Amino acid sequence: MKIQNPKHGRAHLANVAFLLITMIAPGLAFAGTPASPFATGTAGFSPALLAILTPLAVVGFMASGVGALTGKTPWSWFVGVIIGIVMIFGAPQLVAWIRALFGV
Q1: What is the pLDDT along the chain (104 residues), one digit of tens a residue?
Q2: Are 58 and 52 contacting, i.e. CB atoms less than 8 angstroms apart?
Q3: Can you tell me where the transmembrane regions are (predicted)?
Q4: What does the domain layout of the chain look like in residue ranges?
Q5: Rg for the chain (alpha carbons), in Å?
Q6: N or C: which terminus of the chain carries fewer CB neighbours within 10 A?
Q7: C-alpha to C-alpha distance for 89 and 81, rounded to whole angstroms
Q8: Cβ(64)–Cβ(73) under 8 Å?
């Protein structure tokens, strides 16, 4: 016979209640405003982060390329570095493309 923890039932009930509330009123789940402090801070932080990441991306690309050419690292790492660079620097275009794809 398995003894159940009484707190487990309450946690499950809370999860179900939260799921029902977000299904009934999805506006509550996405209650953020476009002019929130988080959006303002990230908009100001993005150019600074990209300015720092640009030289690191070049060095990472060169180091992984040399490592792959000499056989010290697998080619999958080199491909992963390239995909990561594309995702970091192409994020605004990728987001715009996905939003246009789904009509949002």
Answers
A1: 555 555 555 666 777 776 666 667 665 555 555 566 776 777 777 788 888 889 999 999 999 999 999 999 999 999 999 999 998 888 888 888 888 999 87
A2: no
A3: 12-32, 44-63, 75-98
A4: 1-30, 38-104
A5: 23
A6: N
A7: 12
A8: yes
